[in-house]
Amino acid sequence: MHSKKKEIVEITVPTKAIRIKNATCVNGHSLMDKKVLINGNQAIAVLAKYGDEEGLIYLDPVYGSFENMWEITVPKGECVELFCPTCRVPLSEHGQLCDDCLAPLFAIYLPHGGMVEACLRNGCHFHKLQFTDSEEIGQKLLEEHYFDDMF
Ligand SMILES: [Zn+2]
Ligand SMILES: [Zn+2]
To answer: How far is residue 71's CA from residue 55's CA, in Å, rounded to a whole number?
Structure first.
């Protein structure tokens, strides 16, 4: 976990302008699913738990789009727990709460110190994109890896 205080840069991006191509858990395991596509893009696969149920959720990799696919049934308004499918590290273990509904947030990590945080409550679309190093890196990241033909 990040213990040192770092400058955090929050970036506001146009909805659906970014497609996440490479997301990992905190331990560096890729969360990208090569088989499951959402609108033609590789989905982000995370392991979800709700009560006794456990299954994968395939997250829409287009930032700001929520055409996610769920293997388990979770009522709207309920919260899930998310884990890395490879090492089962909790994705929510960083103590951040949703600005909108106060549910815990989960985080997935992007190359070069980027991070996407989003709400664990089904139906809440709160999410944000952060870069923990510098704006320069953020810009580089956006140019190199993310902005593609979505514009
Ligand atoms: Zn992992
Ligand atoms: Zn929320």
So the answer is: 5
Instruction: Please name which ligand lies nearest the alpha carbon of 119.
Output: 2
- Inform me whether the pLDDT recorded for 90 exceeds 60: yes
CA of 151 to the centre of ligand 1 (A): 32
Cα distances from 54 to residues 13, 75, 120, 130, 131, in angstroms, run 33, 14, 15, 29, 31
CA dist 58 and 65 (Å) reads 12
CA 91 / ligand 2 centre spacing (Å): 15
Q: How confident is the model over 102-127, as pLDDT tens digits? A: 999 999 998 877 889 999 999 999 99
Q: What are the extents of the domains in the chain?
A: 9-146
What is the pTM for the complete model shown?
Answer: 0.80
